[in-house]
Amino acid sequence: MANLTTEELSSNIQHTPLIIHINPIGLIRTGKNNASRFLKLNTVLNKIKDYGGNMAVPAYSYTYTKNEIYDLVNTPSDLNEISEYLRANNKDKRTADANFSYLLFGDGFSNRHFSVSDYSSFGEGSLIDEVYNKDGYLGAIGGALEYLTEIHYLERKLNVSYRFDKIFKGASISTNGKVVNNQVTYFCRDLEADYSVSFVQLKEDIRLEGLVKIWRLEEYSLKIEVVKIQELYAFIKEKLLNNPEYLWKKISE
Questions:
Q1: What are phi and psi of 69, to 5 degrees?
Q2: Residues 173, 123, 162, 137: is their CA dihedral positive or negative?
Q3: Which of 23, 64, 79, 100 could make a disulfide contact with 168, Cβ separation 3.0–4.6 Å?
Q4: Which of these, 51, 103, 36, lies nearest to 76 by C-alpha position?
């Protein structure tokens, strides 16, 4: 475990960005109620940006999968209360992916993620692809490692047979109010198959393997678990060679 200041954490992710998922339970020690906890987290994220760090927080809306118009400024996050709070307070930081958008706290990310265009959420040129190529991190607050949606990018990179690219077409309203038609590619599973996604075993295994590091911000009573995305790729690759169903959960279970 490493006890870090906000400035030290920012230095860690200046050139190797971090995508972080948040379970609100991990914020309990940061304040007396959700209002103070959410405000404090928002403060931390913006301080990380100011110190030169680069962190991305999911604000998924799945808009095109619902045949709706995606408004970068106004479409709410479909994840949880903290995700929507952060989105509402950082509207200029949201990416243009109509299904899997992120809030980008940091100036080191490519500006292409803010432009409405044809986009593969889990493919080349995606935000996850950028983090992978920069040898960055995936992480979680509140033990949410099993929610790492970015693993689908690694599955796609490994050419798994149980997922496929599906194109969703729609219209997006950019930050300047312009309506743009585009398509977003989602690397999805067969919804009629007898399995669902499960990263619970993976979460346990990477902890036991020592791949997960803990960064603690003492000044904010905040604990963050992180894993290098390239190390996670190599770990999953080996597991899938031995068991192609490693990341599955049978629906009957």
A1: -85, 135
A2: negative
A3: 64
A4: 103
